[in-house]
Amino acid sequence: MIRVVIADDELMMRSGLRSLIDWKQYGMSVVAECSNGKEVLEVMDNEDIQILITDIQMPLVNGLQLMKQSLERNADLQVILVSSYDEFAYVQEGIRYGAIDYLFKPTLDADQLANALSRCVAKIEQKRIQEAALGAKIHAATSLLELDLKQFLLGNKDSIPPNVSWLSSPCVCMYMKIHQLEKTEEPYGSMLEDILCKELQSLFYSEFIQGITVEIGTDMVLAIFPEQLEPKFPVPVFKKNVEEKLQITLTIGYMAVEGIKSLKAKLTIVKQLEDYVFFEGIGQMMDMDHLLQFGSLEEASELRNHDTEPASFLIHEKIKQWRERTKSPAQVKKEACQLLLSISYALGITESLPEFLEMINYTETLEDVENVLMLRFEDAGRSVEGYAGKLIAKALEYMTLKFREEINLQEVADYIHVSRSYFSLLFKRHTGKKFIDYLIELRIREAKRLLCCRDYKIYEVAEQTGFKDVKYFSKLFKRMTGYTPIEYREHQLSLSDGLTKT
């Protein structure tokens, strides 16, 4: 539905305008009635308004001032001016600003209002069609180029599109890997990785006048752009902008390539980047040409007898060897599992071994591996199923109480007195979901409940369910339910009205 605001300092006039026509018949809904311009601006800060009907003479902010400030907020807003006086100078100024029509209160009737609203609808529809056509054209061209590039890199195509000449020239190649999705302040829910990759690609296209991106897996994006653009858009600045806007941690590896064809030979760099992150940690920037120098070195010597040395000493010694980066992450995880088995059998602690072995395979960094190993022997003798089950139950209870606030993975881990990485692994294994997905489900479920009540504005629903930004809330809600918050409310209320009538 098209959302309308009526602004007039006379209550009778506001009520009269609202009752003059059947708004639903025109596909419209009056979402607010305001007595002055200041109230209208407050509504616009929280609602997506498409039509404004405003009196010219109002206190605090008059109709023309309101129109000017409203159009600064939303250039696509359609405005209808009304007045009890023959204020030709004001009308001229309003039309110059872009008002659709001027209605004279003493002679105003339903047909006049309907005609003015019809012109507004025509403008809105024309704009929508134009934007959809342009967006579809750009999206189709970009999507086709992305697909062509992906097929070329995979070896399914022999050449690049001939109309993209810069791909044959020196380019900068960036591999961008997203980390610690649970820390996202405005999380997107169960489709988090997919949405963030799309947002990351959109930010790239908004900042680089030339370039192309391709998704690699669920949490990595490859971007290529002409080398001459790099000084204008330095990679560190882009990384900082992305992390601030999306509230994520980003690792970027970059390198120069002599055209797209030379990139094919360097595709193994993706694996090298993951290895680098495993050993050095997340959130860094690196020259990937330097990474290509790393190869497989001789394996380190075996540790001394596991049966005679304390478990903690053996673990720390092994961690020291692994930090030398003589082995790949896969080899490190394999050795960690062997170490876990050896010490567990030597000490007679075999309970819950499969669970701990699984946790090692889920780790992303060497620090996580160390945490799992140390935790295993610190909690020796305790049943991990029973112990962890109690921890997760306590965490879920805390989340149910606190989901309306700005809680995060670290806060809940602190509450149950475990490390962040260990809690993340436990939570996923016991619930089958990531922490952030479970938190979002709690929030969206509550948002659905509140939206079934007419008393709450959309921004109030967002605030009361733990979302700081109503735009993020609306985007997430649409992704997860298929409806915008307003559409969901209207759908649920129409169902309720239908049941009441029957």
UniProtKB/TrEMBL annotation:
Keywords: DNA-binding, Phosphoprotein, Transcription, Transcription regulation. SMART domains: HTH_ARAC, REC. Gene3D superfamilies: 3.40.50.2300, Homeodomain-like. Residues 3-120 form the Response regulatory domain. It comes from the Bacteria. InterPro entries: CheY-like_superfamily, Homeodomain-like_sf, HTH_AraC, HTH_AraC-typ_CS, Sig_transdc_resp-reg_receiver, Tscrpt_reg_AraC-type_HTH. Residues 393-491 form the HTH araC/xylS-type domain. The modification 4-aspartylphosphate is found at D55. Pfam families: HTH_18, Response_reg. CDD domains: REC_YesN-like (cd17536). This is Response regulator. It comes from Paenibacillus hexagrammi.
